[in-house]
Fold this protein.
Amino acid sequence: MARFDVYANQGPHADSTPWLLDVQSDLLDALDSRVVIPLRSLQHFPAVRLPTRLTPVLRIEGQDFLLETPKMAAVPRRVLKAAMHSLAHEQAQICAAVDFLFQGY
């Protein structure tokens, strides 16, 4: 497992939130859980004004997804099957969103 890998959401909200983004440090790979952020389809998201720094829009397979940083959670490793994509190229935006959630800047 690698930080910024994207996994298919196997949960009950997979239709509106098809992806989970792994944001946990690779140094903690031995843990039996991973911290993920849901990636929600913009088609299923109401037009609510959220701070773009907290919830940036990221592209996967030509579609836009909202990084729902406030809904970050730990999940058991077993629910994350094979990585489907990587958003490592968006590291700066993702880390800025996490920093904004915890630090306020």
